[in-house]
Amino acid sequence: MSASNTDFVLAVEGLTVSFDGFKAVNDLSFYVDKNEIRVIVGPNGAGKTTVLDLICGRTKATDGSIKFRNRELTKMKEHQIVRAGVGRKFQTPSIYGDLSVFENLEISFPRGRSVFGALVFKRDAEVLQRVDEIADMIFLKDLLHTPAELLSHGQKQWLEIGMLLIQDPELLMLDEPVAGMSVAERRQTADLLRRITRDRSVIVIEHDMQFVAEIADKVTVLHQGKILAEGSAEEVKKDEKVIEVYLGH
Amino acid sequence: MATTIKTRPTGSRSKLPGLVKSLMGAAAFATMALTAPISLAEVNTTGLAVTEDTVQVGILHSVTGTMAISETGSVQAEKLAIEQINAMGGVLGRKIEYIQEDGASDWPTFAEKSRKLLVNDKVAAVFGCWTSASRKAVLPVFEQYNGMLYYPTFYEGLEQSPNVIYTGQEATQQILAGIDWVVKAKNAKTFYLLGSDYIWPRTSNKIARKHIEKLGLKVVGEDYYPLGHTQFNSIINKFKLKKPDVIFASVVGGSNVAFYKQLKAAGIDMTKEKPLVLTISVTEDEILGIGGENIDGAYASMKYFQSLTNENNIAFVKAFKERWGDDIVIGDVTQAAYLGPWLWKAAVEAAGSFDIDKVRAASPGIELTTAPEGYVKVHPNHHLWSKTRIGNAKTDGQYEIVYETPELIEPDPFPEGYQ
Amino acid sequence: MSYAGFKTLFPKSDLIGFAVLAVILVIVLPLAVDIFRLNLIGKYLTYAFVAVGLVLCWGSGGILSLGQGVFFGLGGYGMAMFLKLEASSPENTAIQSTPGIPDFMDWNQLTELPWFWEPFHSLTFTVLAIVLVPSLFAYIIGVAMFKRRVGGVYFAIITQAVAAILTILIIGQQGYTGGVNGITDLRTLNGWDIRSDEAKYIFYFLCVFLLFVCLGVAQYVRKSKLGRLLVAMREMEDRVRFSGYDVSNFKIFVFCLGAAFAAVGGAMFTLQVGFMSPTLVGIVPSIEMVIFCAVGGRLSILGAVYGALVVNWAKTTLSESFPELWLFAMGALFIAVVMAFPNGLAGLYSKYCEPYIKQKLKSFRAGRGGDVMAEGVAHERQ
Amino acid sequence: MFADYSTSELMSIFAMQGFAGLILFSVFVLMALGLAIIFGQMGVINMAHGEFMILGAYVTYLTSNVFADYMPSLFGSYFFIAMILAFIAAGALGMFVEWALIRHLYKRPLDTLLATWGLSLILQQIYRSVFGAREVGVTLPDWLMGSIQLTDIVEVPINGIFVMSLAITISLIVAILMYKSRWGIQVRSVVQNRPMAGAVGINTARVDRLTFGLGCGIAGVAGSAFTMIGSTGPTSGQLYIVDTFLVVVFGGAQSLLGTIASAFTISQAQSTMEFFLSGSMSKVLTLLFVVGILMLRPQGLFSLKVRR
To answer: Are residues D136 and D218 in the same domain?
Structure first.
């Protein structure tokens, strides 16, 4: 493709990972533009979640490179990747049930991330304001002091998204953000996603093709660790290979 | 100064154990003379727990924990001695009451309990401790509060406290005679020293090594294993490689059992004496756990064996079994623990007072002719003059005594060149 | 510290707890018991230091260390080395072949003081070493383990092995360490007799004071963002990591802090009991220390103090009156703590006593017609 | 240190030393197998493992007494009966403990550590009350004593061979049970996905109880065998616990093969070092070695790299 990767927010090239010989991701390359919303689809076991794991450093690549704004991520630790500006939401909502919504957001606030910083961290006006702002955005403003474990499933998903937003990442990765949500919640979430993706790139894993069509700039279809097709939602829907392996049944 | 109690077996009377009967017969006269109670003010000027007719002492051993195995016999012996003394009329006309505390095999607990006995209970004497570590832990307490401890275990020496009477042997008494004997009687030339890894075996082996080298003989190996170690095949191979004439063993506790079982299994037949095993740590008590057939043929060097045939011991063994059951065995430390109350009684009566300082002053030179091991005498350094015997272990778990030093050996807790 | 800051650090319910403990330790106990018992309580309190550290590591952070005895021991040995050197002045040890070195070294044919003993002539160095050496050791273990994401059960078993290693080393190197007997016969601190009743009172109060310092530090950590991070890590370690935190650093920090607390406890142990021995380093004491923490309530730093006091008091009392029963009682206690009240005494208190007391207070206030103060502070959950 | 010996002597010594290592290996395998099942497969930290072993030892002691008193003619074969009884006794106690304690704690592995530690204290005190504080001596049948003379120097202790064959037999039985039998499949499926196993009709509670019982039963057999080489007293079980856990953890807790490999590595390391160094130092070095490797490879020797 391009001679320089600098144009892209994320450039994945030749990415391979194998678990005891099984290649979960095989020689994968793709590029994400600034402010692009990329949706990754594919059948179970296609390697979607593994790709996110590789980008955020949770799994170490066997081969290949991942460049985020021209910085190599494969050599970095998870927290460094996050600090570089990559946020990751997990498939099952991962929030701190024992803490309140407020505390959940506060912990994610990007300040006082060192041991010493955490010890002297103060709940000042900036924190309060930012937490309020985000809570408002994720529809949880009235529940700030509720223990997070008491939230509904959908609210937990929002909370996790909120925890990412407060870090203001340049690349946001969402693993099935609307899974298990009611129709109303889905609508709210789509709305939320549209609002938050105005000034950042987003990678979303999603099954719901209607939802995908609603939000995606570009869709990548994975199959057995490889790219099967890439293009707009309309294009991939028509792709015969895609229909065969994924949409066909 | 010294009080001597002669043993004279007498006929049957009441249900008192044999030894007590004999002792009572002997001591009747002396006791009678003494029972005209000496006033309390006279015998106790320091506020000890003494009343017109009782005196309190402490027994401080581990009843729980890993050391309970070893210390049970000592507790039994001390209780027996106290009961016998009470049956004879007590000490200075006062019955002995004991307060028993559990050291729980834990040295800080020993220190704590000794402080309780001395400070809260104000006991006139304490019979107790077994391991060196527990003694070291309580020693500052006894010195601070001026208590009196009767310590029964054979130990490494290098200590001489005015507040302790050591009723077991210190290392040189036990070791030198043993080595001299194997050299003379068995023509031993080479030695392998093996011990559990703590102060007593290490010090003992140092003394042994020094003595062996002084005799112009050779130590071919020296090894230590952590306490509780249970795998001895490697060391047994080293024996086979180095072929020592004598394996000088001071392994203790559970390791002992493993060591002798594995030695036997590895085809080292101790009855053939090639190599000969000389131990300073296996009393009859330990053989119970090891199994007589596993240690058959080993030699032990200590001051007392249950199989001693003097009158004192026959009466003592009988009394002990009547009190604590027929299947019980008596080892060196148990006997030494038994001496504690008797030595204290003798010292108190010699001093005419329970005051610790007076008892201490009266202690050197105190003799017991009734001791199961035979005549013993307290040395000014607070250890006992005693004989050392060599026993040959038999399958029934008893030792056959094959040698006895002709003279009492002088205790020498700080041997020249060892400190 | 500003009043508001103080309020955040000590919400009212916690403040009452601290005050009650202070009254018990500083006023009630010294008046109620004689110096012998008070000295015992002082000894129990030294375990409370460990238990408080464990609340941070285990209760808050989910890191169960079965090797806290190591740090307790290192602290205690540091103190003991200083005191032993003082007790081994050339005048006191004139009968030795090498006067001026500790007696056990002389028995082991050492003829000069080993290099690592030398600095312990200085009290300043000793005090620093008591805190820093165990912390550094914990740091090394922590870096090695947490950077490699060893956690949970594995961490517990490896710390247990470390405790075993250190015990065997101390016992095996008796020329340098005093071996199985430990370092005994400690008498004076800068010429002041540490065995007198006066010294025992002073050490007791020093111990209580230091315990409150540690409790204060622990409370500060728990109320800081770091405390919330620990809870968060215990629940969702990955989420914390993907919020941009280097999780291992936080674990290392609390582990080191716990080690430092344990070391202070160990040093106070040496001062109050008068010796230090490898039996306090090994696996059994380390597990017992976890038990103190569990009985008190693994989530409550104050509970840990009560846990250490209650278990040890029960141990002493039971072993005085029923030596055969106390193992049964201890065993049953452990099982009961796990099965019936996993949050220990503190859990029982907050479940049964606290609501009752609150209600009483409320009705008392209402009865006076006074204002029922609004709970100003955000609801803090355990 | 070898200058004074002939080559053949040295060869013989090395042969015997290798054999000593193998015996140690067998001892470790026996100790660790039961725990590998309990800890590795079920995630229960059973601190009372040593006490289950000692239960087996006491059963052996009782059996030997019964045979000596009532059937002296059959004394030679009592050991086999004793091992079976030890298995049954320890297994039954294990199942009871699982029912009374462990099953409530499956989600709290660290709490099983505390509860079983409490259990071990209670068992110790029971042993002490029943059998006395002293160690008991277990009389062995004559055929287990002594050794086989292979060459002039090389002698192989019979009980060592017995322990080795026992270790091999039990490992095989466990391997077959785990990997070939229906029950083994059930155990492994419960380990991997409890709700799913329950959903497909496996009685998970029963599988748990049997698994725990089997682990404890094997501990009992190991304890029975150890009466040949070690001591039998109320606190003897404590001697084994650290070694046992290290073997299991070092092997990679979930893998039986790993347990065996780790037992082999540790035993060979220890027995080689014991020959050249003092016993204490070699113990320290072995432990350091194991801890060091575990720091480099926290999952243990044998573990699959799995997709999370």
So the answer is: yes
In a domain, D6, yes or no: no
Domain that holds residue D244: 240-308
Which token pair is C151?
A: 């956690």
Q: Do chains C and B touch (3 or more CB pairs under 8 A)?
A: yes
Same domain, D214 and D267: no
Q: Is the pLDDT of residue A40 over 50?
A: yes
**For residue B417, what are the β-bridge partners?**
none
With CA atoms as reference, the chain D residue closest to B73 would be D134
Closest to B174 (Cα-Cα) out of B416, B386, B375, B383: B386
In D29-88, the residues whose Cβ lies within 8 Å of chain B are: none
Residues of chain D with pLDDT under 70: 1-5, 152-153, 253-254, 301-308
- Please indicate whether, in this complex, the C-beta atoms of A118 and C247 are within 8 angstroms of each other: no
| D236 touching chain B per CB within 8 A | yes
Q: Do C246 and A118 touch (CB under 8 A)?
A: no
Please answer yes or no on whether C333 and D118 come within 8 Å at the CB atom.
yes
Residues D194, D62, single domain; the answer is yes
Of residues C152, C168, C327, nearest to D122 (C-beta): C327
DSSP for A47-80 reads: SHHHHHHHHHTSS--SEEEEEETTEE-TTS-HHH
Q: For C195, which of B63, B136, B140 is closest by C-beta distance?
A: B140
Instruction: Identify which of A20, A24, A50 has the shortest CB distance to residue D304.
Output: A20
Q: What ipTM goes with this model?
A: 0.84
Best of C335, C337, C343 to mutate (most D CBs within 10 Å, chain D): C335
* Closest-approach residue (CA) in chain D for B290: D137
Chain D residue closest in CA terms to C64: D110
Give the count of domains, chain D: 2
- Could you state, in order of their start, the residue ranges of all structural domains in chain A? 10-247
Q: Which residue of C has its CA nearest to B137?
A: C184
Residue C43 CA neighbour count, 13 Å, CB half:
22
* pTM for this predicted structure: 0.86
| Residues C319, B109: C-beta atoms closer than 8 Å | yes
Q: Give contacts of A 27-66 with D, CB under 8 A.
A: 50, 53, 58-59
pLDDT digits (tens, 9 = 90+) for D151-206: 766 778 888 888 899 999 999 998 888 888 888 888 888 877 778 888 888 888 88
- pLDDT per residue as tens digits for the range C318-368: 877 776 777 888 888 888 888 888 888 888 888 888 788 778 777 777 765
Question: What is residue A247's predicted lDDT score, i.e. its pLDDT?
Answer: 55
D148, D275: one domain: no
Write phi, then psi, for B195 (nearest 5 degrees).
-155, 165
**Cβ distance of B106 and C168 shorter than 8 Å:** no
Q: Is D168 on the interface with C (CB under 8 A)?
A: no
Do residue D173 and residue D205 come from a single domain? yes
Q: Is D200 exposed, middle or buried (0-12, 13-18, 19+ CB in 10 A)?
A: exposed
Q: Which partners does chain C have (≥3 C-beta pairs < 8 Å)? A: A, B, D
Domain A10-247 coded CATH 3.40.50.300:
yes
